[in-house]
């Protein structure tokens, strides 16, 4: 009888533990790199300076270490329950810093399923995540006016 209770207890424990594997694990999409869209690339034109390109595209993820004339904008989206989508734009500049070549890899025109996760993560400076502070406390306090002390 004692062996039977042990076997039943062990069977129930194994069933409960193995049941966790059927529930599944929460996964989330992992975006990495520079977000690159077709709209951004369509604004690029040969002859633009590096500053103008930076204004349109932002700073590149990769700059060639021995040749600053090539910038790589790489975006990778590792979908939680799917495949990996990768986009790459390589920009080449001449010695004067002017854009001369644009190479694209991946489907830049496809919409990316990025969710707004502004409520997740650390709070930004000046924002009360719990809305515990009164509305007046977010304003910069005005220092009191200092009156000169009369001299005798």
Q: Could you characterize the architecture of this molecule?
A:
With 152 residues, the protein is of the alpha+beta class. Helix content is 23%, strand content 21%. It contains three helices and five strands; from the N terminus they run H-E-H-H-E-E-E-E. The protein has helices at residues 2-23, 38-42, 50-57; strands at 30-33, 62-63, 70-78, 84-93, 99-105. Strands 1, 2, 3, 4 and 5 form a five-stranded antiparallel sheet that branches. Strand 3 (70-78) and strand 4 form a beta hairpin. It is elongated and about 90 Å long. The model has no long low-confidence stretch (mean pLDDT 75).
Largest β sheet strand count, sense and barrel closure: 5 strands, antiparallel
Strands, count = 5
Question: For the CA atoms, what is the radius of gyration?
Answer: 29 Å
The percentage helix is 10-25%
Unreliable residue stretches:
none
Give the CA-CA distance, first to last residue.
105 Å
Mean pLDDT: 75
Percentage of residues in strands? 15-25%
* Element pattern in H and E: HEHHEEEE
Number of helical segments with 4 or more residues? 3
Question: Which overall shape is indicated by the principal axes computed on the Cα atoms?
Answer: elongated
SS content category: alpha+beta
Protein traits:
152 residues, alpha+beta, 3 helices, 5 strands
Short description:
This protein has 152 residues and is of the alpha+beta class.
